[in-house]
Amino acid sequence: MNWDVWAFRLVFVVFVGGFLAQMSTRLKLILAAPNNFTFDHFGARLSRFVSEVVFQSKVISARKATGIAHLAVFWGFVAFGGFTTVEIVRGLGIVDLTHTRTFFIYKLLLLPFAVGVFVGIVGLAIRRGIVRPAGLGPTVSKESLLIALLIAMLMVTYFISFAYETDLVGRVNWWVHMMIILVFLVLLPNSKHLHLILSPAAVFLASPVLGTVPNLDFEKEEVGLETVKDLPSKMVLDAFSCVECGRCQDNCPAFGTGKRLNPKTIILQNEDALLAGERDKKLVDVYDQDVLWQCTTCGACEQACPVGVEHLPNIIGARRGLVSNGEAPEFLTPLFTNLERRQNIWGLMYDQRSKFVQSAALETFDPAKHEYLVWLGCAGAFEADYQKSMRSLFDLLRSRGKTFGVLSKERCTGDVAKRTGNEYMYQELATQNIEDLRASGVKKIVTSCPHCVKTIGHDYQLMGYEVEAVHSATLVEELTRDLMVQWRETDNVTYHDPCYLGRYADVHAEPRALLERFGAKVTEPARHGDNPFCCGAGGGLLFEEHESGKRMSQERFDQLQATGAQTVVMACPFCSIMLKGAQASTNAPMQMVDLMTYVDGKMKSLTPKCAPDDRATTPAQADTH
Questions:
Q1: Which of 206, 215, 242 is closest to 39 using CA atoms?
Q2: Dihedrals phi, psi of 536, to nearest 5 degrees
């Protein structure tokens, strides 16, 4: 056995030992954290893993060129796994398979992968070191550029191996190739490239449902996140998996309007505190607590992350810790008081809801008589302007021959309590609502509030109650598919996707189908569909009057106004309040209308010849205007 085998064995042990020592530090921190790894919905997790890890779908969809370069590097690493293993086994003197025909064919098949890796990594290095998008941060990471150089050199030594294999040049080239791998291995744990190892696990372990925030168990005296050691295992894994790409930062509406909140910074601050051994440090000392209250819980950061980092449980968990210690910001005090005393966010007397129910001729839900239960929500029950939209929904359902009722008594779902960290209030409201819903025998709930859809349809499942909850846009679109009307004139409109509908519920095709069916030409704003720009109301910020930087509602209204459309159509009561406020502040000549109001108005404009109940109507018979 020649000397270089022993030399390689020594070098291998030293470098692999250094790698394992660094990884063990991170593994110990993950294992020391409260375990919250779950494997429920295994099929959904596996499907996302294949899509986002194997095929890098999220990386490519967000940034095509960068994504394709990343895909080339990823698959190159996978393809070269066998090559590297064979060369290491050979270097350790265990067995030499490099002279076999199978390995030679395999080595040839790696050529296109090698070209892809080389071109991809050079492109990514130029982007990170020269182009320097804002999301990557103000400074260039020398370590990242060094690793990119090592990867490029790895491919160069692979190419050289075809020309020189057995002579001195070939041997030197082999040593350079192997040393690059070992140096890369040692650098990996302390670089953003650690995501190559950890992100597949982070993606698989992330909740299949966006914005999932597990309930607190008060019997176990859980109060939320107060110190670094309270961060559960998935959050610790996320801290080490962050690739620092800045997608979360670029998509965050708070950061985009000049606020201090940066979701990427929060994750990296967790990592710094964990590696510094500051497990007893309070989270409010890790990151400024003010930034926690600038989050609208729109989910843009979490949705954009290509490596499965979940920001919302972190932010809401830290809010819980503050609320449990009486450290909620002042603007939330009236809100919590309203929820406690009146069980609605406005603090209004219950008889106001009763008056609306009576004036709208609504019946109390009876499963023997009614197909749907309409959930009014805090806005539908008490907010006079939005009640116009609810009346439109009632008229639309009646025009299609559908029966529906409402609960005799209805409380806030608890959405705003949960998102602002008042978990006790949320569970109290949710428990009472679930009892009433179970007693009613309801099978299908329809509501015009996307926040209610999320809370009843998903959050209540975590409390053991399952029921189908749909947004009115989804139901009305389904009920009007038989209508085929040729409109003589079209309205130029733009549609604002609510975050809790377009992003959380993935409902964005249905509202547009409705608008087009009823004579509208939809002009899209800058951000739309499953990646809308938040109106600024979520996460309790509807009640924050002193918003720093530019108001998110104003930024969104400017985007909508830039479309040149004459009408803005909305499908959420909170979006309606925020965007109408922004429109009023600028006196812009744009019509602001709710989706149900728009559709109902168009429906009523139809002549008797094409009335909704006339099933024999054809496009040629419709006389519309």
A1: 206
A2: 100, 5
Give the number of other Cβ atoms within 10 Å of residue 84's Cβ.
14
Edge-to-edge order in the sheet of strand 520-522: 520-522, 491-495, 567-570, 591-594
- pLDDT tens per residue, range 165-210: 778 898 999 999 999 999 999 999 998 889 989 999 999 999 999 9
Written as six digits, the tokens of 581 are 């406020």
**Tokens standing for 427?**
């569970």
Contact 573/588 with Cβ under 8 angstroms? no
494 pLDDT above the threshold of 60: yes
Q: Tokens representing 566? A: 């004459």
Task: Show the DSSP H helices in 278-422 as ranges.
Answer: 283-286, 289-292, 300-304, 311-324, 333-341, 351-359, 377-382, 384-399, 415-419
pLDDT digits (tens, 9 = 90+) for 358-391: 999 999 999 999 999 999 999 999 999 999 999 9
Q: How far is the CA of 214 from the CAs of 254, 282, 419, 458, 467, in angstroms?
A: 24, 21, 12, 11, 18
Q: 259 Cβ partners below 8 Å, 6+ apart? A: 291, 294, 547, 548, 549
Residue 54 makes CB contacts below 8 A (sequence gap 6+) with none
Tell me the two tokens of residue 218: 């008060």
Q: What is the pLDDT of residues 450-493, one digit of tens each?
A: 999 999 999 999 999 999 999 999 999 999 999 888 888 899 99
The span from the CA of 354 to the CA of 351, in Å, is 5
Q: Give the position of tokens 């429906």.
A: 603
Tokens of 376: 């009014």
Residue type at position 481: R
